[in-house]
Write a structure and sequence with these properties.
With 424 residues, the protein is of the alpha+beta class. Among the domains are: 80-149; 257-339, no CATH class. 55% of the residues lie in helices and 12% in strands. The chain contains 14 helices and eight strands. It has an eight-stranded antiparallel β-sheet, with helices on one face. It is elongated and about 85 Å long. The protein starts with a helix and ends with a helix.
Length: 424
């Protein structure tokens, strides 16, 4: 008998799992009888109940947002679509208009869209308060401040990213991502049925009634989509708490040195015009066009960063970052895609994996469908809880309520009968 076959038989019988940890061997052979499974189930159940509606909302909004760019570009109407007529304002004029419209705020970002009939996205910040506005470059003129109710897409985006609560919502989202990861881990432990039943636990069984189908959808479906849901949970937590992930990547892969954050202002000289900064960046990286322009808006980050993309590409590209001294209009550093380290690419992969911005339409379709999985797992899990626990309690409560009503009705009837007889 080959070593491979012998090892497979030992694994099937639970031998070799561990000789020194009987509890793990018991879990391997008969997981349903172990305390580990009991407590794992309690954590899985109550964590799912606690964050279930949150997971459902994030799941539905995330799937819808996968195709936001394509749908906005193809079907966009309303205030963001402007009439491209007359002289187009410079980026510096756009910045000055936004600064005048939001007194006390600093312009942090300007997006220069490739389409000439789209308004500029302009972010302004004051402390922790950040606002987004659309600015018509033909004028220029403020179109409107963008809020959660501006369009269905801004509503879904504010829900998915910030839970309508700004930075606090982002942090709550990060905690929600970690809880979703805990549900994935506990769900995987609960899925394990033992060495003799694991193949059956991978399948959906038909003809067994809707309760069995619902259970299989939760159990087998959770197993087959485990990697995707775990990926979304971790990448979602990364956006709120990046430092632990950066430290973990840096422990195993090299990262580029961070760009300089502070450029000393020149006394008596204001920041260079935005267009001058962009032109310097384009001179340093020919064949590109500006996408996002980051401007100094914090005392500890007095630097301009120009995000450039290839002129002939729209989506799925990697940006070139040009870091500049905004007061002297000097290029301090250029970060090109080909110069990035393995660690840089690993961190960039977090966003690509979360949003499905690689592989074109096939990946986006897959992400939109699989993005519904966390919500489906909540719905099927809730139905299991209803079938096993809540429905029984509901029926008992209704029986007691009916019994109490009948008893009360009987007492009222007896009082009425007594009163009538006393009158006679």
């Amino acid at each position: 008998m080959s070593t491979f076959v012998r090892s497979a038989i030992q694994l099937q019988n639970g031998a070799g799992v561990t000789g020194r940890t009987p509890w793990l061997q018991s879990f391997w052979r008969e997981p349903q009888k172990t305390r580990l499974r009991y407590w794992t189930f309690q954590i899985h159940l109550w964590a799912g109940v606690g964050v279930g509606l949150y997971i459902l909302a994030i799941s539905l909004s995330g799937s819808a947002l996968v195709f936001r760019e394509e749908l906005e570009t193809g079907f966009l109407t309303g205030p963001r679509r402007v009439e491209a007529a007359g002289r187009r304002a410079s980026l510096e004029q756009v910045r000055q208009l936004a600064a005048a419209e939001f007194p006390g705020y600093k312009v942090a970002w300007i997006r220069d869209p490739a389409e000439q009939d789209l308004a500029h996205d302009v972010w302004v910040e004051k402390g922790e308060d950040a606002r987004l506005a659309w600015v018509n470059p033909y004028g220029p003129a403020l179109v409107e401040e963008v809020g959660a109710t501006t369009s269905v897409w801004t509503f879904l985006q504010d829900l998915h990213f910030y839970l309508f609560a700004g930075r606090v919502g982002l942090l709550v989202n990060g905690a929600g991502g970690l809880l979703l990861g805990a549900l994935c881990l506990t769900g995987l432990i609960l899925w394990w049925p033992g060495p003799r039943k694991w193949r059956r636990a991978l399948k959906l069984r038909s003809g067994k009634g809707w309760k069995r189908l619902n259970w299989d959808l939760h159990n087998a479906g959770g197993f087959w989509t485990f990697a995707f849901v775990a990926m979304w949970s971790l990448t979602g937590a990364y956006f709120a708490f990046p430092q632990p992930f950066v430290a973990a990547v840096q422990a195993v892969l090299p990262l580029s040195a961070p760009p300089p954050k502070v450029a000393e202002p020149v006394e008596g000289r204001p920041m260079a015009p935005v267009d001058a900064l962009v032109q310097k960046a384009l001179d340093a990286a020919p064949g590109m066009r500006p996408d996002w322009i980051g401007l100094p808006h914090h005392d500890d980050e007095r630097l301009a960063t120009i995000y450039l993309v290839p002129r002939d590409e729209r989506d799925g590209h990697e940006s070139t970052y040009v870091h500049m001294d905004p007061y002297r209009a000097e290029v301090l550093r250029i970060d090109r895609p080909e110069d990035r380290t393995a660690g840089d690419r690993a961190l960039a992969l977090f966003a690509s994996l979360h949003f499905g911005t690689f592989g074109g339409w096939p990946v986006k379709v897959l992400w939109a469908v699989l993005g519904l999985t966390p919500g489906l797992l909540f719905v099927t899990g809730f139905l299991m809880w209803w079938n096993r626990v809540l429905s029984k309690r509901w029926r008992r409560w209704r029986r007691r309520a009916r019994g109490g009503a009948e008893e009360a009705s009987g007492r009222i009837g007896a009082v009425e009968w007594t009163a009538r007889n006393e009158e006679v």
